[in-house]
Amino acid sequence: MFRVMLVDDKKIIVDGLEILIDWNELGFEVFAKTTSAKEAIEISKNQKIDLVITDIRMPEMLGMDMISEISSFSPKTKFVLLSAYSEFEYAKWAIDFQISGYLLKPIDEDELRVLLVKIRGDLEKESEYTHRSAVNYFTKVLAGDIGSAETKRAASIETIKPTISRIVSPV
């Protein structure tokens, strides 16, 4: 399951988003909900969040500023912007910042579902790539193609078997 955080200064929007979609069916879990951009940043610093769905305009901080800050320490996190405003400036920023999606309020359930399926596919591809890269690395270490003589001695199959088992198990 991929972890989602819902962020909007209006609690009714956050709660509504949570019940609008069957998150588990789409491969997501709502891990956190908040009405504060600053709290969202703190949550992201302490927990792995795969997707943040956030309002653009919030009183304490713009969603775009929150996204910039979270991206600085969690570059793989995906973002979807919500807005009641159909302003070109926001859409252009979203495109320039490679935001995964931009939805206008009121949120269309079907549009959100389609976007979530696309994002899940992107997250799965990234996860699979990371998995394959780790397996390739450990294979090269075991074959003696990577590392110092000391690393090669320490990399006996018995000492790294638990790590390999975790990495090689299905994603």
Q: What's the topology here?
A:
Layout: E1 2-7, H1 11-20, E2 28-34, H2 37-46, E3 51-55, H3 63-73, E4 78-83, H4 88-96, E5 101-104, H5 109-143, H6 149-154, H7 157-168
Parallel strand pairs: 1-2, 1-3, 3-4, 4-5
Helix pairs in contact: 2-3, 5-7
Cα distance, first to last residue? 10 Å
Number of strands: 5
User: Shape from CA axes?
Assistant: globular
Report the C-alpha radius of gyration, rounded.
20 Å
Strand order, main sheet: write it out: 2-1-3-4-5
Question: How is the biggest beta sheet arranged?
Answer: 5 strands, parallel
Q: Per DSSP, what share of the residues sits in E-state strands of 2 or more residues?
A: 15-25%
- The number of helical elements comes to 7
Mean pLDDT: 83
- The helix fraction, in percent, is 40-55%
Order of helices and strands: EHEHEHEHEHHH
Which oligomeric form is depicted? single chain
Structural class: alpha/beta
| Unreliable parts | 166-171
